[in-house]
Amino acid sequence: AALHAESAGFSPRDLQCKGSAKETYFWVPGKEARPGSLERPEWHPGKRTKQAFLCEEAGQNLHASTFECQKIGPPSEQQWHQAINFPESQQMRAKGKLHRFTRCGKITTSKTSLAPSERTHLGGKSYICSECGKSFGWRTNLVKHKRIHTGEKPYHCSNCGKSFNAKSTLIKHERSHTGEKPYGCPECGKAFGEKGILVKHLRIHTGEKPHKCTDCGKSFIERGALIKHERTHTGEKPYECSDCGKTFRISCHLKLHKRTHTGEKPHRCLDCGKSFSERASLVKHERTHTGEKPYGCSECGKSFRISFQLVIHKRTHTGEKPHECPDCGNSFREIASLIKHKRTHTGEKPYGCSECEKSFRTSFQLKTHRRTHTGEKPYQCLDCGQTFSQRSRLVIHERAHTGERPYGCSECGKHFVSSSHLRKHAVVHTGEKPHKCSHCEKSFSKKSNLVVHERIHTGEKPYKCLVCEKRFCSSSVFHRHMKIHPEETS
Q: For 359, which DSSP code?
């Protein structure tokens, strides 16, 4: 049965997509169904000339600027859609004219508003870049794209002078100055400067991960994350450093790497003035001032400044140690610990001191060592004011005030302020002497004793008496000697 034309909302100004057919059909104004009848509006076959559509039955020429149809046939019962009336402001403009319609049911009075929809249905992208061959459905998109090749950036930020190749990108950038975040999450209230970022954020709440890897089945919230992940399977590293030739899977990794050559640190802390090469590092650093620890452990309630720290911490509850050394089978909770451990096998010490040429296995060891040259002691005890070059030494020192001795010996029950003190004590029970002299095969339970012993072979005597200029190989012998000069040292 035919639908009631009036109940469907049809008027002479309304046109609707009615499906595909070999012939072209269109609806002529004034040929609509009578009110109250069950007849459909009349559709007539026609053909297109160079400048117009010719209705064979009505004998009317219809100019192409007001009507365009892509092989639309008479409607079937299933293809009959509810019509949409034009707003009052458009009725005079629409009166007495045919208005184009699309395959998807869109009704419009504007030629330009139809064009993208028609190209979507037809798969047509008629604007092609002469540089790379990429095609676009809109000429304006091609113009924007060409700026990638020419380097043109016509849109300038009035605040910082930075330039952009698209106006939309400038608008997003300006929000970094104004702090405007117009897109709010209805779930948690978090706000964003870009709509696209909000869309991705919402997937955290919904759990949606629409982008799936065909190799391993892993899914991702963003397509960009999938592309980066796929390179772990292919081994592709398309981004190369022009200075050292090092390659990277991700463009941002190359950008950050280049700053190791330039020394650029564009992200500055407003509280202490410290600068960073990465924004993420600045965000983490700022939490040392605010005390913010947004990542909480569901097992013990402990909180962390960095999400990665929480991931590593959770392994203390699960016992997971996924990173195994291929040389000795020792396992570690974090990959960084495995890398450092491997250097005990290879003997590699990539971090060298520019002052004394001493080398270290880790960058942290080098950083700590440099303080012996600069005299810097940034860690201060709040109880007595004593300062230390290492945070770990401050923690151990503070236990002298609190009386805390968290490391207990399982053999005798004796407790110690540090794990290193416990390890030194443990050899009393085991008789182990792991520190062997490379000159005479003599062994020691403590490394410090080995260091002093080796000076017998090397002849090194680093401790000098300022009174008689006599030198000694150990500090204990030096202090005993100084007692013979009581007047000079008083």
A: E
Q: 117 to each of 75, 76, 105, 113, 481, how far by Cα in Å?
A: 20, 22, 10, 8, 95
Query: By C-alpha distance, which of 88, 100, 75 is closest to 21?
Result: 75
User: Percent helix, strand and coil across the chain, each rounded to 5?
Assistant: 35, 15, 50
Tens digits of per-residue pLDDT, 154-201?
Answer: 999 998 989 998 888 898 888 888 888 888 999 888 898 888 888 888
Q: Cβ neighbours of residue 442 under 8 Å, at least 6 residues apart? A: 436, 453
What residue has token string 């910082």? 160
Tell me the pairing of strands 24-27 and 43-48.
antiparallel
Phi, psi angles (nearest 5°) of residue 145: -60, -40
Rounded to the nearest angstrom, the gap between the alpha carbon of residue 57 and the centroid of all alpha carbons in its chain is 63
The two tokens of residue 48 are 């297109």
- Rounded Cα gap, residues 90 and 335, in angstroms: 65
**Token pair for 97:** 């004219």
Q: Are 291 and 273 in contact (CB under 8 A)?
A: no
Model-level pTM?
0.38
Residue 84: HSE in the Cβ half-sphere, 13 Å Cα cutoff: 12
Dump pLDDT digits (tens) for 244-281.
Answer: 999 998 888 898 899 989 989 999 999 999 999 888 88
Task: Please enumerate in sequence order all residues whose Cβ is within 8 A of that of 90, keeping only pairs 6 or more positions apart, or say none.
Answer: 109
Residue 28 neighbours by CB distance under 10 Å: 19
Task: Give residue for tokens 């997971």.
Answer: 320
Please tell me whether residue 45 adopts helix, strand or coil conformation.
strand
| Listed residue (18, 62, 60, 55) closest to 40, CA to CA | 18
Q: Are 400 and 381 in contact (CB under 8 A)?
A: no
Cα–Cα distance between 65 and 110 in angstroms, integer? Answer: 9
List all residues 6 or more positions away from 200 whose beta carbon is below 8 Å from its beta carbon: 221, 222
Which residue bears the tokens 């020792």? 330
The answer to whether the CB of 277 falls within 8 A of the CB of 255 is no
pLDDT at 40: 38
d(CA 455, CA 446): 15
**Stretch 380-407: mean pLDDT, rounded?**
91
Q: Report whether 193 contacts 175 (CB < 8 A).
A: yes
What is the DSSP secondary structure assignment for residue 71, as one 8-state letter?
A: S
Q: Are 191 and 178 in contact (CB under 8 A)?
A: no
Residue 208's alpha-carbon distances to 14, 39, 219, 224, 360, in angstroms, are 39, 47, 9, 15, 46
Q: What is the pLDDT of residues 104-123, one digit of tens each?
A: 444 444 444 444 444 444 44
| Surface-to-core class of residue 246, CB atoms within 10 Å of its CB (0-12 exposed, 13-18 middle, 19+ buried) | middle
Question: Could you tell me if 275 and 265 are in contact, meaning their C-beta atoms sit under 8 angstroms apart?
Answer: yes
